[in-house]
Amino acid sequence: MLAFSVVIPNLHSTFIDRTLASLRAQDYDLSRVEVIVVGQDRHGLIREDDLVCFDQSPDPLPPAVARNRGMEQASGDVVALLDADCLASPTWLNTLARRYQDAEAHIVGGGVSFPSGNYWTICDNLSWFYEVLTDTPAGTRSHLPTLNLSLRREVFETVGGMDESFPRPAGEDTEWTTRMRLAGYELYFEPQAIVYHHHSRNTLKQVLDHAFHYGYNSVKVDPRYASTVGLPALLRNPLILRIVAPVLGTGATARVFLKYGASTRHLQTVPAIFLTKLSWCLGAAQRLGDEQSKGAKTNARG
Question: What CATH number does domain 1-200 carry, 3.90.550.10, 3.10.180.10, 3.40.630.30, 3.40.50.620?
């Protein structure tokens, strides 16, 4: 039976006790599981026991740093990443373990579900996780989110950890899993390995700010990926990207509802999702402009 190490970054989450309770309720042999929580817990909600270890940091850690720190301590055959605002379904680890019976499976992401209450929370989840919702088909993906991601230890050892230059949760998982894919690994999506996402972005400002930083940190505008997965040369001009943003936003919004079939019961979110795609474009254009300025300063010094 596979041994799992579940790694959770935590920064004073008020939900982490429920996240840990969902792991204690797994229908998997918990003697083959370790849970490593990394970060800070001012609310005192983390209870350590034979299953859970809390690596408390003296300073707040960005999610990428916390995940790397946890993965470096992990002893399991497979590292499973979960966020501190998620509940794992009781069959989560068992479903992942079945997939890893295939020796060719190295990276497996799972399905994301979310509450149907707050409008802006629904919009944020649909906008960024539409490719990994629980009712989307299994198969390969170009990237996978770290709120529900697992990998064999050898992937971490071969590709390395997450890029710790990301100061906040937006885009670091896309960069990491893109790096895995470019290294030759298949990113497999298994919708039945379900987690329930209970994030706290519930206002328009929070949702658009999240989208802006997704765009700013996107691999599509990261100079390291310009020749592989970057935007076409024409769109790498920040002014042009801003001008065509409504067209790109319309296409990206349509993709949410057409390619992966986001439910028709969410059609009321179309205007808000369009705004998140516009905000993504503005963030991407800002990054391109910053890179141009940086390049001009370097050339001037040279």
Answer: 3.90.550.10
